[in-house]
Amino acid sequence: MRQVLPPVTGVLMPALSRIANEPERFRRVFLQTIAQVSMVSLPPVIFLIATSDWVIRVLLGPKWDECAAIFAWLGLNALTQPINSVTGTTWTARGRSDDMLRWGVIHNLMIITAIIAGLPWGPLGVAASYAITGLTLRVPFFYWSVCRNSFFTVPDLVRATGPHYLISAVLYAGIWLLRHELGSIKPVYGLAITGTFAGVLWRSEE
Asked: Rounded to two decimals, what is the model's pTM?
């Protein structure tokens, strides 16, 4: 995603800046963009979450199996990060640097608090605390902040990205059922089979 998002935000920000005084056009371009970003970014993240144990085993070996749960927790947080990055460009495009600064301070304080809260349970506790507070506190508060005095609303964001989250939920359920049917299988073969299934479902969404 680090290779995909910079070009998207790099093009989107100046484009939105040029139409910052055209509310309806601004709203339409932005919502179309986050819909496309969610369609591209969500399925791969869901796939990595659903197969985290296999991914860790294939890439790092059996000694790192305990990291699979941490990887999965962090993956939950990654479900919103691409959309958040694109959404944040609207602050820059409309010259709302004061709002961006306030959010940055609040966001960092939330992250520090989440990390401290998870420390008693070790690395897994930190990852879980980071993910849970991200989905239940940081993301909702971020969307409220960015939609305040903006040309779009939180329901607009939900309508633009909701169908792709629903497809991703179906993908996760499908992979879970497929893994149940496959039973004990070598991770590399499991990834190949579930990856093919995910790819077919992903293409059907386009």
From this structure: 0.88
